[in-house]
Write a structure and sequence with these properties.
Length: 271
């Protein structure tokens, strides 16, 4: 019998994770099945327990359950503890272990796939929600010259920066405070692109050779990437690579085998 995994979310119909993990399984020869499971917003914990009883070995967790997943776990990896959120559950000997592979996925996509080093660079992270929280610690591990977190609600960016202050040169502010500053890497971790909006960035935030990265992905440029392109930025990437890389990291956590992500990313882009 194949080992069972799934992704919990609400909504979940759009999830690409089953397709990604099916390709990983095919490539590595690991005998797993992976499905998308809709969890009612008021009974995430019950949905997880039901899956464990049915023989589930692990699960990914997406919007809106990552923080609830953190609270459900009996033990956490260091990176999950730092993020205060869990996107990868492992069910081992009756215990639920929580990890967070989002930050690792983002950094791997930037550094390895997109050849964009973070070390000694000035990085701007837009947004202070769950995705920004997951990314901050992992980006600071690369030892940037500065990591500035800017958010619509400035106080949330300041709090987030304070939370990670021991790990490196990180500060938080509002968008208007960015006047006169420029960055080598600008990562959009707001959900503004979902509504076709772009955070109100002052002119000049993109340095001449900057990388503009949107965690969101879809057909064609997201609103943020279209805006950056209009400003003359030509190094642009959406979050599909991050999605595949965080999945590969979860697959490694569960199976101890690291899939080759390039052909999987190619297949998704072609689809
Ligand atoms: P949250 O709801 O936790 O946070 C949303 C953030 O966006 C907040 O900082 C919020 O600011 C900001 N925001 C929302 N609307 C606007 C707007 N119109 N203008 C400016 N700022 C805005 O979401 P997540 O952090 O979970 O997700 C953020 C994005 O990252 C989503 O697009 C999601 O799809 C993507 N993502 C991609 C992943 C991948 O693998 N590629 C993985 C995880 C997330 P405020 O605090 O002021 O409300």
């Amino acid at each position: 019998m194949a080992d069972r995994y799934c992704v919990f979310g609400n909504p979940i119909g759009h999830s690409k994770s089953p397709a990604i993990h099916a390709l990983f399984a095919q490539q590595t020869g690991e005998d797993i099945v992976y499905e998308a499971r809709l969890a009612p917003t008021d009974s995430f914990a019950a949905s997880v327990r039901e899956f464990v009883v049915a023989g589930g070995r692990g699960a990914n967790v997406t919007v809106p359950f990552k923080e609830e997943a953190f609270r459900l776990c009996d033990a956490h990896s260091d990176r999950a503890t730092l993020a205060g959120a869990v996107n990868t559950l492992s069910f081992v000997d009756g215990r639920i272990l929580g990890d967070n592979t989002d930050g690792a996925g983002l950094v791997r996509d930037l550094v390895f796939n997109l050849k964009t080093p973070l070390s000694a660079r000035r990085i701007l992270l837009l947004g202070a929600g769950g995705a920004a929280r997951g990314a901050t610690g992992t980006m600071l591990e690369r030892e940037p010259a500065a990591l500035v977190i800017a958010n619509r609600t400035a106080a949330k960016a300041e709090d987030l920066a304070l939370h990670f202050a021991d790990l490196g040169p990180v500060s938080g502010c509002g968008f208007a405070d960015l006047i006169g500053e420029s960055f080598d890497v600008v990562v959009n971790a707001t959900s503004a692109s979902l509504g076709g909006e772009v955070p109100p960035l002052p002119e000049g935030v993109f340095s001449p050779d900057a990388m503009a990265y949107d965690m969101m992905y879809g057909k064609g440029d997201t609103a943020f990437l279209a805006h950056a392109r209009q400003l003359g930025v030509d190094r642009l990437a959406d979050g599909l690579g991050m999605l595949v890389e965080q999945a590969a990291e979860a697959f490694f956590v569960w199976r101890g085998v690291r899939p080759d992500t390039a052909p999987v990313l190619d297949a998704l882009r072609r689809a």
